[in-house]
Amino acid sequence: MTASFDIEPAADGFSASIRGLDLAAPIDAAASARVAEAFLAHKVLVFRGQQLDVAGFAKAGGIFGRLVEHALDQYRHPEWPAVSIISNRNPRTGIVDPKGAARGTGWHTDQSYARTPCKATALYAVVLPSAGGDTLFVDTARAYADLAPEIRSQADRAAAMFSWGGRNPGNAAPLTPAQRARLPEVVHPLVLQHPETGAKALYIDETNAVRVVDGDAESGEALLKRLFAHATTDAYLYRHRWSKGDLVVWDNRCTAHRAAGGYPPGEERTMYRTQIA
Ligand code: SIN
After folding, report:
1. Do 183 and 73 contact (CB within 8 A), yes or no?
2. Most CB atoms closer than 10 Å: which of 17, 114, 205, 230?
3. Distance between CA atoms of 136 and 185, rounded to whole angstroms?
4. Average pLDDT of the segment spanning 123-131
């Protein structure tokens, strides 16, 4: 039987910390059910004090569903392909890339460039810099609920074209011809209805949402900009300041996130990441 553990929601309910649950140990059905319920209620779960190797991390991600490999094969762990290594340190040369801190700093939601994006992502701190390197999350369901009726009805009717790094190509790894062939442009609505809670949420992505598909380009761009600006204000924000041993899992169907960067150049930041189907 899984030992008892605490779930501590943030004051506004967006995110919760889980203490006393060892993700490396077997998790029984009652504990899994509590975690699944907290995941839907709080959207971002922070499991504190974990000690996981790559196999333990993959097992922990598996509590939430089937793991899927990252579309860019160069990030995959050599023995655990569903685990990506997100690092500013080159594994071959050991050199830390001073520009690595800029990576992932545009607001996005994972795999929005794919036909079927992943429902969740898990991220685990392996090596942290001495300062900075936070991850920011916004609650896009609450942002949707707060929209003025007129803009909400525009968002409800709109869809956008998404492609890998399409809006900000300078800040996304270039695709090989094979990767490009696997990732054609896709269309997603700008408002998603969560398949489990039924709540509607904005589907915003400053990195991959290239343009609104119908209507004139100028009004489409104005709508995207207005929705990004609205959803990414502090009113909907949770800032995760990483500690060693944190594993964070988030729901991509009702949140967006970005890396905050801002850590000292030359310091390593290495995370394990996996996507959950
Ligand atoms: C991500 O964008 O999936 C990772 C965020 C981070 O590295 O903080």
Report:
1. no
2. 205
3. 26
4. 97
pLDDT at 169 over 80: no
Q: Can you give the pTM of this predicted structure? A: 0.96
> Which residues are 200's β-sheet partners?
193
Closest CA to 89 of 136, 130, 127: 127
Q: How far is the CA of 125 from the centre of ligand 1 (A)?
A: 11
> What residues flank ligand 1, with Cβ below 6 Å?
86, 104, 110, 121, 123, 135, 257, 259, 271, 273
Q: How confident is the model at residue 74 (pLDDT cuts 50, 70, 90)?
A: confident
Q: Concatenated DSSP letters for 192-248?
A: EE-TTT--EEE---TTTEEEESSS-HHHHHHHHHHHHHHHTSGGGEEEE---TT-EE
Residue type present at position 58: A
Which residue among 68, 88, 109, 123 has the greatest number of ligand 1 atoms within 8 angstroms of its CB, and so is best to mutate?
123
Rg of the chain, C-alpha, whole Å: 18
